[in-house]
Structures are given as structure tokens and as C-alpha cells.
Amino acid sequence: MSISFNESVAVVALFFGCIVATCGYLRFIAFIVEKINTEPRFVTLPMVQFLDDMESEKPIRFTSKQLRLATNNFKTKLGSGGFGTVYKGVIGNNQVAVKVLNGISKERVEEQFMAEVSTMGRTHHFNLVRLYGFCFGSSLIALVYEYMVNGSLDNHLFKRTNEAMIGFDKLHEIAVGTAKGIAYLHEDCAQRIVHYDIKPGNILLDSNFCAKVADFGLAKLCNRENTHISLEVGRGTPGYAAPEIWMCLHVTHKCDVYSFGMLLFEITDRRRRDMALIHDIREWFPVCVWEKYEKNQLEDLIKDCKIEEKDLEVVKRMLKVALCCVQYKPETRPSMSFVVKMLEGVLEVPEPLNPFTHFLSY
């Protein structure tokens, strides 16, 4: 049976029509897949409002595809913690650190995400790690930070190898820079920001070993007129968290001052001192500092820490500031701007009281 010319044309047209339709369908499917990968499928109403609000802020919203390309499919792992894993990446000419958030529940991941973006997205200070942007999608929730080539302070403080250690003049600069970053959070932001987790692991160092306060996953915004902050659960790291946090008392921004004091003790001693591992309270380094200070023997303790003669006066000042910062009553702790001036030698350090009277008598 022969086929007429018109019928042949119809068959060819039908064939090519099917091809065009198929291509269109495949492009539609690809578009849907891309939307699924870049936009959350199920987003809570608070999160919708939060993402809308962040449109007017500085951070860039990246897609999951962009961050996979930037990190070479998350090839180089920099570290991991309780709420995520950090990968090295490159965006444009900038090295970045991409923190991929994960946790035991969707609610905790969202809480962590909002805490970091809402605080870091509104801050601009030399001694704070810069937040470049974020990704919030069904397949990826991540934060994009500037990359700190020298890692965290704890990697340098607690070395037990033959590698060169940071000199004390530089450690003093790191302490001052950290104090300036916290002072900015407390006193210079439109809304006060309480960090809640100041410790060596959250102080990052750039190529010049300048200190940058990082990891705002526990941070909280509060109005300046609110003298106390309501906490549903305890925050911070044992050994650094202020007593009022773990005793469920009223909490203020002075909890960061306490944590900074504990950080100063570890900077001068260069050893991690976990009170939970101490059998006798007299063996705890901060208590040793107080006892030596009370007996006017602080220099003896400093020499035991192998501090050079030229650094003795600076270290004495740092230890006195630390004792002021870890006072039991929050209202007796200095503000962070005063801490900066005391560390720099602009203000005299007042004679501290015994910060450890709340322990059993010893």
C-alpha cells in the first residue's frame, strides 16, 4: 500500500512534534528538580518570614548547586562539631568555609541557622568572622564564611608537638582582638548580641594571626533595656559557661565576660584546664592564680608557666583581668569595653575580689 506525499509530511511532522514535546517535558522536569534542590519544600512560617527579612540584609543567598561547585562536591573537610561539618571552598577569588548544618531534628537545625544568620548577617567588625551568605534548601542548609587560614586558637594553644608556638606578644594581641569583638557585640550593635560560647575553639585566626570571634549558633539578640535574658535550656560549654547558666539563675550579657576570663586563663597557661577532671579544687588553675595573687606570689606562678621575663608584666595584667572577669556575681564583672582598655594598659586593673567564694571552703 503506497503512502501519499501529504501522508508522509504528516508522519514526519508528527515525529518531530513528539521530539519537541519530549524535550519540553524534560526541560520542565529539570526545572522542577532544580527548584526542589534550591528551595525548601516544607518551610515553617517563622522561617518564611525570616528568609523574607534577610532579603534586606547583606548576606547572599546561594543555591545548593553553587555551593557544591564551590566546594568541589564537599571534597575538603576542615572540621566538624555538634551542629555541622565545615568544608573548604572557593567563590570567585575568595577562599571560603562552608558550614553544612545538620542535627538531630529539623527544629534544632533551623534554630541554629537563624541564630547564625540573624547575628552575623547584621555585624561588621574586624574581629568577627565575616558571613558571606547562606543556602536554605530541602537538600542543603549551609552558611558561607570567610576562610581562616590559621584555624582556631585551641589548635595553637594546646600543641604538644615540636612545632613553633605562638609568641606571647601575639597571644596578647589575640586576647585584645577577641575582647574588641565581644565588646562590639555587646555595646555597638543596634541590638545587643550575646554569644554564649566564648572559648578557644570559637576564636579563629587569619593569615596574620588576628583574632576573629566565630560560631554564633548559640547566640541571641536582645534589647538593651532587657537586663535579663530568658533561656529555655542551658547554653555554652562546660568549663567556660558562667555559673548563672548552669545554676539556672538570671542570665545577662555578662556571661560572655566570664567565658572570656576563662579564655584568658588558658591563654596564659597554654593548657586546657577542665575542672571536671580536677580532684582537688586547689589544683584548678584559676584557683591557683587567685591563691598566688592573694599571697602576692603571682610572679612565681607565671614563671612556672615558662613565661619570658619580658612578658611578666603583661601576663600579670592579663591574669588580674581574668580574675575580674570570672567574678561570681555578674554585676561585679567589668564591661568588655573596660576589659579592652585594661588589657591595653589604658586603665589600671582594680584589685579583684575572690571569685571562688561560692565553692566549698578550702
TrEMBL record:
Q: Which residues cross the membrane?
A: 12-33, 128-148
Using the UniProt record, give the first listed, main subcellular location. Answer: membrane
Q: Which PROSITE patterns match?
A: PROTEIN_KINASE_ATP, PROTEIN_KINASE_DOM, PROTEIN_KINASE_ST
Instruction: State the compartments where it is located.
Output: Membrane
Q: Would you tell me the Gene Ontology cellular component terms?
A: membrane
**What organism, scientifically named, is this protein from?**
Mikania micrantha (bitter vine)
Keyword Lipid biosynthesis listed: no
Output the Pfam families linked to this UniProt entry.
Answer: PK_Tyr_Ser-Thr (PF07714)
User: Does the entry feature the keyword Cell division, yes or no?
Assistant: no
Q: What InterPro entries does this protein's entry cite? A: Kinase-like_dom_sf, LRK10/LRL21-25-like, Prot_kinase_dom, Protein_kinase_ATP_BS, Ser-Thr/Tyr_kinase_cat_dom, Ser/Thr_kinase_AS
The similarity annotation says:
Belongs to the protein kinase superfamily.
Q: Enumerate the GO terms in the molecular function aspect.
A: ATP binding; protein serine/threonine kinase activity
Residues engaged in binding ATP: K99
Name the record gives this protein: Protein kinase domain-containing protein
Which residue numbers delimit the Protein kinase domain?
A: 72-357
From what superkingdom does this record's organism come?
A: Eukaryota
Topology term for the membrane: Single-pass type I membrane protein
